[in-house]
Amino acid sequence: MAAARPGWPLPGSSALLVCDLQERFRGSVAAFPQIVAVAARLLQGCRILGVPALVTEQRPEVLGRTVPELGAQDLPRVPKSAFSMAGAAAPLLGDPKIRSVLLCGIEAHACVLQTALELLARGLEVHVAADAVSSRSQVERALALARMRQAGAYLSTCESLLLLLLRDSAHPKFRQVS
């Protein structure tokens, strides 16, 4: 296994958290179809590379279930009422191998931000897939991303994160992921 480097997630020590991509947000969150498509690509790449993933649902009895086009039907979908995903993801994050978390979903200024801040406070590296994060307001999204960066999170894109996990075009799973 390659040595750990700050800002460089490794498949064996990373986890993916997908935040609240639920039916009720479909009509109100900016660029929702694109956000879901990019999150689905990130999820699929993580599956191929063996990165464990978890999906949360914010009060599913009110906001509905995870949208099917995410392709997460086989994953644990953990209901929550807290904005941060950290409590809901405790079983996954309790694994001592996990040192970095890839984060995507909605809403940037609420659940994604509070999750990032809590994970950073716990000493985990946080990698936000900015092209798979949104809010109802683009001002809220922009300020939340800025706040996460100020707090120490790494902002990236889905493709960049997948390439960081792969490290090399000679990786045996490069074609499947790219």
From TrEMBL:
InterPro entries per UniProt: Isochorismatase-like_dom, Isochorismatase-like_sf, Isochorismatase_domain
Pfam families, A to Z: Isochorismatase
TM stretches of this protein: none
Domain Isochorismatase-like intervals: 14-159
PANTHER family attached to this UniProt entry: HYDROLASE, ISOCHORISMATASE DOMAIN-CONTAINING PROTEIN 2
Protein family per UniProt: Belongs to the isochorismatase family.
Protein name per UniProt: Isochorismatase domain-containing protein 2, mitochondrial
Organism, as annotated: Lonchura striata
Source species taxonomy: Eukaryota, Metazoa, Chordata, Craniata, Vertebrata
